[in-house]
Design goal:
423 residues, alpha/beta, Alpha-Beta Plaits, TIM Barrel, 2 domains, 5-stranded mixed sheet, 14 helices, elongated
Length: 423
């Protein structure tokens, strides 16, 4: 026998992990009749579509549930009577908060609802960086829509509630478009005004604990929404400015390399599209290095394994050309991206940087130890050195030493800093 809406009533003031908004319109309508007014906040997470494309539906639903739990945690003290926190309808990456108050509660609808939205944003800034980990890194950027309706007996409650949902989603879309334009303008100005700056993370020889080199890492302006690398490159990806940002980051890495410690290597990240950058031409690049009192032999270009190389032949020609000048190359994020062993062998990197996902906890994980040992054997046959990334503990460092891995990098040796402080 089919279940009637009345058979699954939502408890008052509910945190409802398993219920969807559309399933409960009958009960929500009854609560709407009692209160005479209703407010709705829709928290949309469009980035979860990317999670599903790469990791599948289960990963997306897990992230959506994590978001619902976070919103519910913030909402708990505000919920009264008939209020509800639940998932939206299937197919929508949304968490919905439904708040029932009297029509006379103008202050609540005008100030407390927007205030609740700000509380959720603050909570995400504090501990939201791990919310969608490991599928997405960084603090999620939600779009939030607010809508309010007063009961009109001329219409059915279901009709009014459906309109309320549509209005909240319209507000989400409007906020998203406004934000999109604002972020693009801010990113353009950041690139044009050369406000990208670099910090440098030490790469240390495992046995001697001495600094072998520094990796240049880009940062956006301090106290801006584009400060973190995830925000910076995420915005560039969304707005088609990855090439422009890559050029700006490379220039920043070289610009910041004043007083570069003698006898150490400067690791600079590049994209496969770097071959199209006029400032990457041999004459200009060497001229820039000379101004910093650097030689090609001091520089290692890092290519991320997570970047797809479309014109592989042209890219290999570029590598050979710059190798003849004395530059070296590293394959970054090995173990986390798209490149297979064939690409690894063809690129013939001088350094293979093992992604932190393979290094974290390696001292307690025999399987990871076996993988690193196999990669080290391959590197030895290619004449490449191995660098373990993401070191956080002495135990991980000591395990790298026992495995025979020569170099390590991570917060164990200190957070990235401007070069003057690092040197």
């Amino acid at each position: 026998m089919p279940t009637r809406p009345d058979d699954r009533l939502i408890p008052s003031g509910a945190i409802a992990p398993s219920l969807h908004l559309g399933d409960q319109f009958h009960e929500l309508g009854a609560r709407f009749e009692r209160s005479g007014a209703v407010g709705m906040l829709v928290f949309a997470a469009p980035m979860l579509a990317h999670v599903e494309r790469r990791h599948g539906e289960r990963a997306r639903l897990g992230c959506l549930e994590a978001l619902r739990a976070k919103v519910a945690e913030v909402a708990r003290e505000r919920l009264r009577g008939d209020d509800l926190v639940c998932l939206s309808e299937p197919g929508f990456d949304e968490v919905v908060v439904v708040l029932f108050r009297r029509p006379s509660s103008a202050g609540f609808y005008r100030t407390e609802m927007p205030g609740f939205r700000q509380e959720v944003n603050r909570a995400l800034r504090v501990d939201g960086g791990q919310l969608f980990y490991p599928y997405l890194r960084g603090i999620p950027s939600l779009h939030v829509g607010l809508a309010v309706a007063m009961r009109n007996p001329q219409f059915g409650t279901a009709t009014q509630l459906r309109r309320l949902v549509d209005q909240a989603r319209d507000a989400c879309r409007h906020e998203a478009e406004t934000l999109r334009r604002s972020v693009r303008q801010e990113l353009l100005e950041t690139i044009l005004d050369q406000r990208i700056y670099s910090v440098y993370e030490p790469i240390v020889e495992v046995s001697s604990r001495t600094v072998f080199g520094y990796e240049s890492l880009a940062r956006g302006p301090e106290r801006s929404r584009l400060h973190s690398p995830a925000a910076l490159f995420g915005a560039a990806q969304e707005h088609g400015l990855v090439f422009e940002l890559d050029c700006a980051c490379r220039e920043s890495g070289l610009r910041g390399a004043v007083d570069f410690p003698s006898g150490t290597k400067l690791f600079l990240n590049i994209l496969p599209t770097t071959i199209h950058d006029p400032n990457f031409r041999e004459d200009r690049l060497i001229e820039t290095l000379e101004k910093r009192k650097l030689a090609p032999q001091d520089v290692v270009f890092e290519i991320s394994e997570q970047e797809s190389i479309r014109s592989f032949g042209s890219f290999l020609e570029m590598l050979d050309q710059y190798r003849r000048l004395g530059f070296q190359f590293a394959l970054d994020d090995t173990g986390a991206g798209y490149a297979g062993l064939e690409e690894l062998v063809e690129l013939e990197p001088d350094y293979i940087k093992i992604d932190r996902s393979m290094v974290s906890g390696v001292d307690q994980d025999p399987a990871r130890q076996d993988v690193l040992a196999a990669l080290l054997q391959l590197a030895d046959k290619m004449g490449a050195q191995v660098i373990g990334e993401g070191l956080d503990t002495l135990e991980e460092l000591e395990m790298l030493g026992r495995l025979g891995i020569r170099f390590g990098q991570g917060w164990l040796f200190g957070h990235p800093t401007p070069l003057r402080a690092a040197g």
